[in-house]
Batch of 2 targets.
Target 1
Amino acid sequence: MSSRPTVLVVTLGDFRYRGFCLQQVAAAYDVVVIDSVPPTAEHAPYVTDVEIADPHDERALLAAGRALAARHALAGVMTWNEWVLVPTAVLAGHLGLPFNTPETMLACRDKAIGRSVFAAAGVPSPASMTAGSLLEAALAADSVGGYPVVLKPAAFAASVGVTHVERPEDLPAGFAFATAGAARARESTAVLVESYLDGPEVSVETVTFAGATIPVAVTRKDLGNLPYFEETGHTVAAGDPLLAEAGPIAVAAVQALGIDRGVCHTEIRLTAGGPRIVEVNARLGGDMIGHLVELATGIQLARVAADVACGRAPDLSPTRHRAAAVRIRYPDRSGTVTARRLSRAFTAGTPWLERATWLCEEGDTLMLPPQGSSFTARAGLVVVTAPTADLAAKRADRALDRMTVDTRPAVETGSAT
């Protein structure tokens, strides 16, 4: 029988993206899991016990939680999955385990609520209005300051349904795109019309414990071409001077939302008028950002999140002073993957290439926006390390150039005339 504490993780996610989270936590805790699907072969060595249940089915989720609590002395509950923040909060309350409240998690999930909270607390964020129709969207665009504007689902993630609208004549297509994304959300199907924040985008990774929120790292983001906001890469460097600029507003946003524990990923635009909050995600950042933080600073954010979930003071002492970057390969066009290439000589002879991971197989269909999203468009990713951020970015771009994918466009069928 293990003497280690047991932490309950709700939803494991794709091992290619979130495997490092599970590995960090399992190094110090026994991990029991509630998920809608069984753990994969990659997950299995790190999982002590599992209950299969749909986290969005409250009765099934609570029953699974009770079953695990009957078999294990649970010290805490956590998730790194955006979609199950509110259900996890409900489960924690049912099991008597510490977690942020469901109301707080809903304010993070529903950006309309978050915008109201920020406005009341004086935390700078874009002007924003909810639109239920194209006419309302047109009126909202004028009300938030005019074009360009950003349209987005109030309660989705991964830039799904988020679009830049430059001119009034582009609004119908933009509203249709955002509405289609919003229809897939659970907490809210609303569409927001917001003022466009011009400037580079970063995220701040924070840790909240015992009443204090501490900025740990800043992530510099690379985005694809407008009108979409697909994330194409991230770079993290220990000691990045941008942390001093962006850190305080991230702390203010986290505190305004009432988050009293956990790791948060806060997205910020650095505008000419100062930093502005895009959104606060009350979980570890995606796209390998937590792994980049570990490579650059030595701080293991998933392990930190588990410590906080179990009421333990986290160790935020950096043990490295380096940089790391990830770049994501998208196809040039939507279609069926016909070939994918990555030089074995390059990967074997490049010590700074930490990993190169395919996210597709030959025969898969990759779909770029507007028909697809980051969930359907990504072909692979590369992670690199370097002494500095500039060199990490150059190395990441070089590695990405060695990862190529070919697609055959789908053939449109129709009756001949």
Target 2
Amino acid sequence: MNCFQNVKYGVSCREAAERYGVEVNHCGMALCPFHNDRHPSLYVADDHYHCFGCGEHGDVIDFAAKLFGLPLYEAAQRLAADFHLTSDKPPSAAALHAKRIRTEAQQLRENEQLCFSVLSDYARVLRSWKVQYAPQSPAEAPDERFVEACHKLDETEYYLDILCAGDSHERAEVVSYLFADGRLDKLKETVNGRDAA
């Protein structure tokens, strides 16, 4: 097993981020160290990271390379040294399989938590818009934010209910729907745009 494989199997992206001073919350979100981030926009999973703000993404080696300004091989060597990984004792096949199964389950939970977090923030924005931008008279044309709130709030709360109380199949369907076609990214942009205003 080469250094790259050893590091990818031996160190999760979240472990590396936390080791190098990035505080990751329970939803897997953190302030992005790659741009001037005021609201957590970096999603850190076990096997990858993605910033909804600046677009940076990759695996644990990409993360260390970007963070320390190193070539990929040097980043892999630094991770191996910092996490005491040796090439002469690679993980066993059983350990790799167990880690993969655990990682997939963790990934599902993390995706659900991310969706719940973004949907909760979006619902909060919609509730605010429904009051703040309501027409003051019947003759007044409705603001587009008021219209969006009227159309999307019930749907958003429905998805939140499923993520809270639905079975695993229902939750997986909501997560798949939100990750498809960049829907979750668009919701995050709406929330971040509102927070920046």
